[in-house]
Amino acid sequence: MADAAVSRRDVRFQSGDGECGGWLFLPAGAANDSPVPIVLLGHGLAGLKSQRLDSFAQRFAERGYAALAFDYRHFGSSTGEPRQLADVEEQLEDWRSVVAYARTLEGVDPQRVILWGTSFAGGHVITTAAGDPGIAAAIAQCPFSDGLAAARAMPKKTIMRLMREALKDRKAANRNEPPVRVPIVGLPGDLAVMTSPDSVSGLRAIFEASGEPFEIPEIPARFMFQVPVYRPGRGASEVKAPLLVCVCERDKVTPARQTEQLASRAARGEVKRYDASHFDIYVGDWFERVVGDQIEFLERHVPVEATAVR
């Protein structure tokens, strides 16, 4: 099935103590024909669904898949205070919630739910798929797999400065004061979570391709306490569904060596390699190549017109 006629509508679903906002993309006839698979898409650190997740979702829907791109609580169209708070456990709860919600949607096959996560969400996808044997397939794009390795890869001065800000932010939270925030990207030597040489220019390219004014997001610094202890790659061996791992070989944010190991741990893991850096594959020719590979993976493992098999 390949139909360019795609509709998009706003949706909301309950998660924890709040709501997540999303965009549901449906191929023509999804509610009338046989139920179709659905791809659930979540972004990386501080990313919003409007920042190129919709471009991936649109392509999947054009091939006959339903697709739902969503914002985590505290971000974008979702509820939650303080704004821009990145919290691993809350985001994992949002993933479980969106899976449960997707299984209730009219025209969607509840047995063919597919997870798609990029960067930090690539780790969430692995964790979620490992805990849910009903997931039909998963795609982890330049995924965050090992927080301890990521922290060790940071310049020592940068990590020390970030941890000092995290301590300040924790104290502020305990006093019900406004968060102490840190930028998610910066130039080498800046105080920021990601300071690879391409971080600022790469994020700027995503904003520009999304038609949004460029402004570096800032998150409450307490997030840094969670980084070293979040190691989602360890759960890859528990993922029973087909798992596609997309590796950017020049990635300085989520290094390729740790990323490639994910697929070797998974029972049905596959790797696609790109001579690209972390932010390249959201736009331009790299986007076209990676989304084409992902569609090929989906059509091979979870074809639209196939009968669901448990």
Automatic annotation (TrEMBL):
Protein name in UniProt: Alpha/beta hydrolase
Domain of life: Bacteria
Keywords per UniProt: Hydrolase
Keyword Nucleotide-binding: no
GO molecular function, one term: carboxylic ester hydrolase activity
Hydrolase in keyword set: yes
Family as reported in the entry's similarity comment: Belongs to the AB hydrolase superfamily.
The Serine aminopeptidase S33 domain, residue ranges: 35-176
